[in-house]
Every structure is written in structure tokens, then in C-alpha cells.
Amino acid sequence: MPIERVKTGIPGLDEILNGGIPRRNVVLLSGGPGTGKTIMSQQYLWNGLQMGEPGVYVALEEHPVQVRINMAQFGWDVRPYEREGTFAIVDAFTGGIGETAKRERYVVRDPTDVGLLIDVLKEAIRDTGAQRVVIDSVSTLYLTKPSVARSVVMMLKRVLSGLGTTSFLVSQVSVTERGFGGPGVEHAADGIIRLDLDEIDGELKRSLIIWKMRGTKHSMRRHPFEITDKGIIIYANKVLRVTRRGVYEETVSSEES
Amino acid sequence: MPIERVKTGIPGLDEILNGGIPRRNVVLLSGGPGTGKTIMSQQYLWNGLQMGEPGVYVALEEHPVQVRINMAQFGWDVRPYEREGTFAIVDAFTGGIGETAKRERYVVRDPTDVGLLIDVLKEAIRDTGAQRVVIDSVSTLYLTKPSVARSVVMMLKRVLSGLGTTSFLVSQVSVTERGFGGPGVEHAADGIIRLDLDEIDGELKRSLIIWKMRGTKHSMRRHPFEITDKGIIIYANKVLRVTRRGVYEETVSSEES
Amino acid sequence: MPIERVKTGIPGLDEILNGGIPRRNVVLLSGGPGTGKTIMSQQYLWNGLQMGEPGVYVALEEHPVQVRINMAQFGWDVRPYEREGTFAIVDAFTGGIGETAKRERYVVRDPTDVGLLIDVLKEAIRDTGAQRVVIDSVSTLYLTKPSVARSVVMMLKRVLSGLGTTSFLVSQVSVTERGFGGPGVEHAADGIIRLDLDEIDGELKRSLIIWKMRGTKHSMRRHPFEITDKGIIIYANKVLRVTRRGVYEETVSSEES
Amino acid sequence: MPIERVKTGIPGLDEILNGGIPRRNVVLLSGGPGTGKTIMSQQYLWNGLQMGEPGVYVALEEHPVQVRINMAQFGWDVRPYEREGTFAIVDAFTGGIGETAKRERYVVRDPTDVGLLIDVLKEAIRDTGAQRVVIDSVSTLYLTKPSVARSVVMMLKRVLSGLGTTSFLVSQVSVTERGFGGPGVEHAADGIIRLDLDEIDGELKRSLIIWKMRGTKHSMRRHPFEITDKGIIIYANKVLRVTRRGVYEETVSSEES
Amino acid sequence: MPIERVKTGIPGLDEILNGGIPRRNVVLLSGGPGTGKTIMSQQYLWNGLQMGEPGVYVALEEHPVQVRINMAQFGWDVRPYEREGTFAIVDAFTGGIGETAKRERYVVRDPTDVGLLIDVLKEAIRDTGAQRVVIDSVSTLYLTKPSVARSVVMMLKRVLSGLGTTSFLVSQVSVTERGFGGPGVEHAADGIIRLDLDEIDGELKRSLIIWKMRGTKHSMRRHPFEITDKGIIIYANKVLRVTRRGVYEETVSSEES
Amino acid sequence: MPIERVKTGIPGLDEILNGGIPRRNVVLLSGGPGTGKTIMSQQYLWNGLQMGEPGVYVALEEHPVQVRINMAQFGWDVRPYEREGTFAIVDAFTGGIGETAKRERYVVRDPTDVGLLIDVLKEAIRDTGAQRVVIDSVSTLYLTKPSVARSVVMMLKRVLSGLGTTSFLVSQVSVTERGFGGPGVEHAADGIIRLDLDEIDGELKRSLIIWKMRGTKHSMRRHPFEITDKGIIIYANKVLRVTRRGVYEETVSSEES
């Protein structure tokens, strides 16, 4: 039985994932500040909408109104899809307070209550028939309570995978951390994509690496990427090498990838 | 009196273990996320079934249904063995909640109760006549209570060794940790196999090393391995060297191994 | 829709920001002691006043009287602007105690009460019609309570962005820290500018790097800067490289910048 | 007055100890998992029995039955000596619970009670006339209470030295620790022998170093050793050097040792 | 308005400070044990007395009697100045207990009470008309309560600056610390002078660096210094460079300084 | 007034101390396990007795009987001096419990009571007219209460210096620590002598460095030393250099020392 895959549509990403993300996988999108986690997760949802796959974005870090503005800056206007019922933003940011918040449909009244968040999320998934879900960020749910990190991720995993969605959990790590969000979190995820922004000899370089992805082969290399005004572009045929002799990008033939 | 050994059947592993794991040993299978611990432990059980040795898998991280699906992706369909009573999955994940969980035979109602888990495990071992046991993962049992780690491992060791099984305890360490799971755990185990996934010059490399194995000589080298769609293959005649002058694989004659 | 930008007027900074800071962004100005955070933030406000953009400075580290003296040393005499109502200092330092404090208009009676601080800040923004705000330093608000850091920054962000201002949050990090102020803070900001003072081979070198800036492209290089008696000058066409072979400044053509 | 020495009988060890361990010394045998601490301590006791010196082994990590099996694998069958009353195992593992435990003569009913353990130990020393004692491991006694480490070691030292025995305290350190068991412990011991297992360029290497030994000169070098099926062999005329230019073993003349 | 400066009179220091310390600055004198912090602070006060500027020394680490003896060893006999009322030692060491303590004029009865210390300090400043103050050490005031460090330094700063004095706060850091005394302290000071004592290739080297100094340009280099029997001499025209190729002192022309 | 000095009589030490330790100094003798702290401190006392200077040794780590035996192994038989009343051992080890302890004259009944220890110490100093005191080790007094370290050292300093003695406080640091015993301790001492035992390329090397010594110039170099059967010998005309190019000993002319 061949594995079912979800195409991310992000240039270069499906190629290094050997065709896409295995369906129902819960993928940790892990990185420091400014690495492009939010953009990549929104691009994943937008591309799904273009392919006819409904999606849900859970906003824990930003006002839903701001989320729409930010996405629009890349040409991703989600409002028509919200109107036709194939896209939804779950507002887990405002607590329903404020004028604009009153116009939101999916509101988590108490964003610190994970059980409540899951109830609203389930409703949004069922209403839209979502096949893609993003939670931005999952770290917010246990920032001050690291001991509950594993159980929170486990609960989300059961719901997201159980309802048949393929999801990105945005995981914020500090700029100096080299892990992906703690042992309880990084072992629970089906996949880990790590985004990096490193200063090398006075220049900032962007790269990503697929650390694990259950159910598929994937590139075992660190790939450079760029954030353009159309979104993220990953160079599947390039590898960023940081060695003792310096840093350089090397073009590799696709057979080697 | 020659030592009794259990053949893992994993390509390359028995060779570097000088013939297999000494019977009744409790082996820590330690590694970071994405290193292949779960796959190796399931392959060990499957190979046992092919050799007529019953086994038990304790699922603490994943739904039993998902465990069966994951194993099947490598061609390891355990359902016939479950039906004939030579294989069992102990469900220490669902707590018996959910439709599919109701169909499981070995369920730990409260997965946080180690005493209860041991009772169900004993029952499964006796019912199946298990000679091989996997606990995936033992870290889950003390993730938020590190002070009990040693006593938990000691309790399991008494039961597993006492009932004559040869077992793998999957130990999750963070991607940046270099130990095997803490002093209380790593000294208590009869053997330690460490799986690694390291980024070297922009490429991910898999390797393992036998850190200790009571009762037998073993390879004192770091061996590269691969995860294929048939499971893990270890290169017993290769050594992965990471030196100041770079990283390279070297083929060694078997006499040296 | 082209992005609206706020010109900082700081020599070199707008150039490496591709024209200025996107309006409504909340920018973390992060650095160790002696790196020039306060000077840069005051220069940003002063330049705004010269361009007809009112501003507010929240003083948490220094007496308002001393703030005026310090600014005057660079030729930035804010008193005329305070009189005409286009500039205000919010005194969150004295608690209203002391003779000179009695003459301040915007006083936070209890500087440990963030809610109160926000109320006074809102009043000052509305009275002046401020388009630029500086909070110096935001770290003071959670120095002894790191667990509230994220919520404090989130609250400020809602107010500052909601009222249409473009703001600098001064973030103090220790001289040996390499992050920007903790995960809760650095992920919440729309932009991060890091100021550094490093001893290299017996010499102190100043440099800055734009780590992230939502809504615009920006230089991906580390730029040297100087503190002169007219304020800060950033060398947009130079890059400070610290490599294994030593440290050197290199002039780059503006196309590359 | 020439110093009295206890011959360990371990090949190479007495040579690098300038003739043996000064009588009544309490020696910390410190090392990570898999370094051979237990084997060396058991070999020390067995060799004593061959020279007519009675001994006591305190089992804190392993069932007494398993201790006898493990020793027998090296050809060290202690049962005849137990029968004739010149060797004893103090069972501080089972708490007297279990069928086989009932047959043990020296049982510590509550292994967490150090006072009780010392009482049973004294009795065993007096009954056997023990001149050699091993406590395996002393770390177990304060694993979860590091603040009592020094007082526990001090108490043991008073008894062991007071009764005229020469003893090994097995000290477990984590694989990544470079100390010997904490300041309270390492300063209290009369001697420290450190066993190491290091991965160097993809190969595991065994070595030991005598860090201190009150009352005698000793080798100031790191010596390679091996674990054979007859026990440990130390290469007194070799030194393991790990330098910036690589690792190598060098043979040194005995005069230099 | 040209900036008013206080001449330290310490050979080389005023030169690298571009003429002296800006009046009213509160300067952190930070360094490990044995770096010469106390000597430099006492030399600063003594030189003030020679220029007709009264001073106060707050003794928190040493008996006032011993302070006078130590200063006298460098030829700095403060007793005549104490008699004429232009110098005072505040005894925050003895608590007024002991025969010799009874003869002290400025005694802090409870040295753990910072409010009380400030009251006595104010009195001493007013009585002497002090223009220079040293607190040796400020670290003592929060050694066991790091969370109050910032507020203690802030309180002192208000008093010292408010009364018009130019002061040195001696800050003790551990020999392995690279900061200046914690974020709350190092950001609050107007200036930071760091004294270092480093072992380089088997030799101890003394050097200092002006990390920051509000209101003036200053040397951006690390300068070697010596402690002679006449006090400290700083080599303003030398720089101590510690590079990958070794350590060396280099003489630089004063224009470059 | 020339400074009064106490000759240690330890070969090489007075030479690198420019003639001896300034009278009344309280010197921290700091080092890891096995570095020779106890031997050096006992040699200092013994040499005093040979020069007619009475002394007191406070035993916190070892039974007084064992202290006498250990000293005798170097030919230092203190019993005649104890009989004539010019030497005393303060027993702060046994608590007065045990047969041999009953014969001790200076016993601290409760070794955890620092006030009591100081009372007994004062009595012993007065009875013997001690000019030299050793406390072995001072670390024991605050091992489990680091927050009281500074106040304990301060109390001892007042007594030891007040009674006119010149003293060594033995400070135990862990083998991996690079400080001298914590900030509260290392800043309080008048002098710091650091003893080191380092493994360099497979060989253990002994060396010491005078980190600080109030009231005198001293060698600023790291000197190799040896422990012989006559005690410690320091090579004042040699320096141990550990550089990037390797480790070597270099003979230096005494003028340079």
C-alpha cells in the first residue's frame, strides 16, 4: 500500500520530502526568532487552499486581523476562503476581548485552557473539513509550564491525527538553543523540520534540515532557503556546509539528494 | 558453561555483539529524536517471532493501532501472531479510553501507575510465553519525576530478568544530550546501545555504538547504519570516524571488528 | 499596497532597513551594557520630532531630569517639544517622589504596576499624538519575574501597535548572553535589532545586526557603528567579520548590502 | 616504619601503585557506565581470597544470586569461600523480599537506612575476618540526596578503616561527568582510581589513572587496560595519550613509570 | 556646555578616560579576586584628598583599622584627613562590636540594613563635603539576595549622584565569571571599569578595560597595568592582545589610543 | 615600616612569595582532590615548630590520631610538641565520640556549630601561643550551606588575624572547578594559593600559582612542584606552561621570577 502524501506546495520542500508529508503526520516546525516558521506554516495552508484542501490556522501569538494582513503581504488573501467556509482562523489570542475580536467566529474564550482550545479547534476542523492545520505556536501553550509540554502535544496529536489532518506545530526555541523544544515534545512529533538563521562571518544565512519524518525517506542534508515577497523558496539541489574550513554552498545533483 | 545468546536478527547487529545479546540482559536503547530507536526495537521483536520466540511490546508513546500500522509499513504484520497468542501489545497509552482501545486485550488503565503497568506486563509475558520484551519508552515513566528513574528501571529489571526475557528499554534523550538517560538509569542497565543522528558538514549521518553489554565481548567501534523500507541495516565492517581532519567511513576487516 | 515605513533618521539605519521600519512594528532593541541602546532609542525619537512626528519616552531606568540632560549632551534638547505638547517623558522611575518629580506631567505612581504604566502611556500617546514610542527598558518590567515576560510584552504590543505607533522596546541582556531577552520576548517582537560591543584582540568593537524585521527585506550583515557626540553613525556599506582567521572590516558595494 | 600494602593481584595495578594499596585506605573506584568498576572490585576480592585474605562484598545494585553468577563467568566461584566463612555478600538489594533472598545470611532489611547497612556490614566483617571490602555502589546511597554524600562516605570510612580493612567504594558518575562523584566524596577518600571509556575517532578505548593514593607514590600516567574473560589486565608499561595531534599508545620503560 | 570631569590621579587612567570621570557618574569597578579593585578605589580617594576633594570610603569587607593600615602601606595615611574632617570611613563591617569599633564615628549598626547604611553614608558625605565616594564592596549588599541587586544599586545611585559625588562601586565577580555583576547591576551603572588577572601560558597578567563611561569618549582598548608599592600604574600607550597566535603587549601611539 | 613575614620553610615557596607570607594574613589554600593541600598545610606547621613558632591544626576531615600518623609518614612527629604545649590539634571530627577521642584535649563537641569551633580554637591558640593556624578544611563548614560561606570565613578571619596568627584555610574545590571556593570566600581571603593536578597528554602534572597575597609582591608564574617523602618541593626557577603548542617546563633565571 503506497503511502498517501500531502503536497506542501512550497518550492523545494516536497522534493526534499520525497513527494510530500505522509498524511496524518504531526510535524514540529522548530526554530528561533526570525527564522520564518510562521511564514512557512501559512504558505502551507495557502497552497492547500489552492489545491482544494481546506485548512485551519490557530492564532496564539497574533491578532486574527493581523494574521490576515500578514498573509496578504505575500499575496495570500484568505478572506474569500473564510467566506466560502474552507478556511478558518481560531482566535486563541484575544480571548474575545475587543471590537474586532467580536467578529471572529472561532474564539477560545480562555486561551490558557488547552481543553477549551481543542474543543474550538475540533469544531473548526469539522466545519471547514480541514485537511491541514497549523498551531502557531504550540510553545505558547507550555511556555511557563514545561512539565506539561509532552501531555499537551500528545493531546493535540490525538485530535489532529484522529481527525485525519496533516498538521504543523510551530515550536519556538531560543536563538541559542540547539534542540527542537524539549525531549517530551521532540520525541512525540511524527516529523521535525528545523529552520535556522545563523550568523556566519558577519552574514546571516537561512537554512533548514528535515530531522525526522515518519513514513518516508527524506533529504539528509541542510538546505539553504530564502524568504521572498512570494514566500519561502528552498534550494533542494543545494547544501549549506559549515565546516572547519569555512562555510559554503554546494550544488548537488538530484540523484544524490 | 557457554553463554546463551538471543539473536536480534537485525543485519549486522549480532555480528558486532559477538553472536547476540546474552539472555536475560536488560538493554538500554538510547538516542535522540529521529534516531530509529522504535524501529530497531520493533524489528527485534518481529525477528523473534520469525524464529519462534514470542514477544511483548509495551506502547507508552503511540496508540496500539498506530503501532500495528507503523510496523506493517516495514512488512511486519503482527496481527496473525497476536491472534495465535505469541505476540501482545500492552496498551499503556490510551488508558482504555476510545472505541479502538476497547478492543485491546492488555490495557493499563492508569499509565502513570508503574505498579499497575508491571502487573499487566507480567500477565502478557506469561500468556504469550514471551522471550523478548520492548518498553517504548521507559523515559515516559519518569519524564517529570527524574528522581524515581533508577527505582523504576530497577523494578522493571527485576521483573524482566526474573521472568527470563531479554529486553530493550527505549530511552529518549534530548538531541543535545550526550548521556544515555541519567546516572540512575545508565548504570542499572546490563547493556547500552546508543543510536545517533549527527549533522556533519551539512549532512545527517546515522551511527550506533555498543557502549556496554554484560556477559560478552562486543565491537568497540562506531558503526554506520541505514533505515531502509525493510528496517535497519548496520554496517558491521565499517566504522564512522569523526576526527579533527573531517568525517569518513572506513571499511575494516572482520578480524579487527 | 506598498508598505508604510517610518524613517529612523539614524545615519545608515534606514539604508540597511530598506527604507525604514514598517509602521506599527514593535522592535526589540537588544544588547548588553554599554552597547548604545539608550542613545539609539533617543536618537530615533529626536529625529522623529525633527520630521514632525511626535514621540513618547518611557523612563524606567533614569530620572526624567537626567534623561533630558543626557539627550542634551548630543544636542537633542527636548524641552521645547515638551512645551508645545509633541513630546512627553513618562516617569516610571521616581514613583512621583522627590521635588523635581512633582513637576513631571506623566508619572506612574507605582512603577511595578504594568497596568498602571500602560494607562499613563496611553494618555501620553493620545495627548501628544505620538507616532514613536520608546520603552527604556522593557527588561526592568520583568527582571525579577521572568515568567511574566511574554505577557508583559504582549500587552505592550497590543497597545503600541493598536494606537498606531512604531516603537522601540529596549531589552537589556547580560554581557555574556547571546540571546535577545528570552524566548517569550524575542518571538513576540515584530523586529529585533541587536547591538554588540565585543572585545576582539584587545580592542572593543561596536556592531549591530538586524535579526528580524516583519514586513520588509533588510540587510543580512553585521555592520560596524560608532557613537559620536552627534549620536550613532552606522556604516551601511561595511561589514564586520569575525572569522577563524581574525577580525576585519570589509567595504561592500551597496548592491550587495 | 615501612608502609603495609595490600596486593590487588590485578595484573599491572600493583605495579603502578608501587606495590599495592596502603593498608586501611578507602579507595574510590570511580567511572561512568560500562567502564569495568564492578569487575575490578570483584577481581580485587577474589584475588584476596586466593591469598588467604577474607572479604566482604556489599551488593546495592544487583541481586546476590546474580553477583555470584557474574563473578563465576570470570571463573571466580565464591561459593566455597562463603561456605567456609571467609567471604560474604551483604544483600542490600532485595530488602529480604523473594524466595532466594531468604537464603542470604547478611540482609539489610531497609537498604535506604545507612545506619542499618553499617551494622550488617560490621557483622559480616567480624564474622569473616574480612581484610577487603567492596561497596558497589556507594553512589546508590545518596543518588537522590546529594547533600548527605559526604557524611555517608565519612561514616563508612570510619568503620572500614577502623576495622582494619582496605576497601573499594564503587562510585558511579554519568558518562559526561569529569569529576569523581562530587566534592564531598572525592576529598574524603584516601585514594581515587578513575576508570574511563572514551570514544576516540570512532573507537572505544579503556584506560585508568590513579588520581590520588594516600601513603604511597604511584604512576602519574593514564594506562590502557582490557577486560578479558579472566578479568582486567592493565598495561603498566603503556600510556594512553590523547593530544591535539591524535590519540596513541606509547610503551614506556618501567623506570619512567 | 563642556562636561565637568573628576581627575582620578591614577597614572594612565585619566588619559584613557579622555581627561577623567564625568562628574556625578556612578562607576562599577568590577573584577575577580586579587585584581586590585580595592587598591584602585583607595588610590582614587587618596588622590582626591591631595587635590582638596574630600572623600568617603564605605568599608563592608574589612575592619576600618585594617583599611587604614592597608592604605598606609602604599604611603596613603588618611588619619590627618579624618582629623580635619575631609575624609571618613563608614564602618559597615563591625556592627559597632569590639573595642576599636567604638572609636569609629560612622558606624552602621546593622550592616544588612541597606536603608540604615544609606542614612549613615549621607551623614558622612554631608559632614565631609565629600566629592568622591567608594563602596567596597557593593556585592556584599546582595551576595545572598541577587534579586535585590538592581534596587540596591538604584538606591545608591540616586543618593550618590543626587548629592553630587562621583563614586566607585566595587563589584566582586568570581574568578571564572565574565560579566560585571549581573544584568540588574551592569545596566544601572554610568560606567564600568573591568580589572582582570589572567593566567596566560603560565604567567599572570594584569589588565583593565573601560567597558562604558557615560558622557565621555574613552579608550576602547585593553591596557596592561601594574600594582607597585606606590599604587597602580596603567600603561595608556600599551594594549594587551590575547589572540589565537599568542599574547603580546603592543605599544601604540597616543593618537590611536 | 618593613613588612613582617612568616617563613613557610617549604622549599621554593618563600622564594616565590618574596620572603614569606605577610604576618596576620589569612591564606586560602585551594585545590581539587589529591593536589597536596593537606600536606602543604601540615608542612607549614611543622616548619614553624622547627623555628620555634607554635601552631594549631584544626582537623575537620580526619581523626586526630590519623593526622598524627599521616604527618609522621613525612618524618613530622608532632607528639613531643603537643606534650610541651607548643602544638595542638583541635578535634572537630569525632565530636568526642570513641575511645581515642577521649584522650584529645581540644574537642569540638558539635562540629556543625561554628561558634563552638571558634571558642575551642581560641583556647588552643592562647594555650599554645600559636603563631600559625591551619583549618583543614574550611569548605566542610559550609559544604551543604553555601550561603553562609562568606560569613564563616569572615568570622574566622576576625579571630585568626585578631589573635595575630598567620593562617592557612584549606579550600576544597571539585576536580572540574576552576574557581577557588566561591565569590564570598575568594574575595575575603588575604591570599590565595592554588594547587593544581592536571592530566596533560596522559600524564599528571603538579603545579601551583600564587593568585593573590596582600602586602607583598609575589611570583606571577605557575610553578611545578613535587610531593616527596620529605614533603613538598616547589621549583621556584621553573614555570609550567600549557600553550596551544603543548606543555613544557621552562627554567627561568631568578631575576625574572
Distance between the termini of chain A: 25 Å
Q: What is the number of beta strands of chain A? A: 14
Q: Mind telling me the CATH class of chain A? A: Alpha Beta
CATH architecture of chain A: 3-Layer(aba) Sandwich
**Tally of separate domains of chain A:** 1
Q: Regarding quaternary structure, how should these chains be classified?
A: homohexamer
Alpha-carbon Rg of chain A, integer: 18 Å
Helical residue percent band of chain A: 25-40%
Class derived from helix and strand content of chain A: alpha/beta
Rounded mean pLDDT score of chain A: 92
Low-confidence stretches of chain A: none
| Biggest sheet details of chain A | 10 strands, mixed
Number of helices in the DSSP assignment of chain A? 7
Order of helices and strands of chain A: EHEEHEHHEEHEHEHEEEEEE
CATH level 3 topology of chain A: Rossmann fold
Instruction: Give, in spatial order, the strands making up the sheet with the most strands of chain A.
Output: 6-5-4-7-8-3-9-10-11-12
The largest contact between protein chains, plus residue counts on each side, is: A-C, 28 and 31 residues
Roughly what fraction of the amino acids of chain A lie in strands?
Answer: 25-35%
Under CATH, the homologous superfamily of chain A reads P-loop containing nucleotide triphosphate hydrolases
Any idea what the shape of chain A is?
A: globular
Topology of helices and strands:
6 copies of one chain form a homohexamer.
Chain A: E1 5-6, H1 13-16, E2 21-22, E3 26-31, H2 37-50, E4 55-59, H3 64-72, H4 79-84, E5 87-91, E6 106-107, H5 114-128, E7 132-136, H6 149-162, E8 166-172, H7 183-186, E9 191-200, E10 203-213, E11 222-228, E12 231-234, E13 238-243, E14 246-251
Parallel strand pairs in A: 3-8, 3-9, 4-5, 4-7, 5-6, 7-8
Antiparallel strand pairs in A: 1-2, 9-10, 10-11, 11-12, 13-14
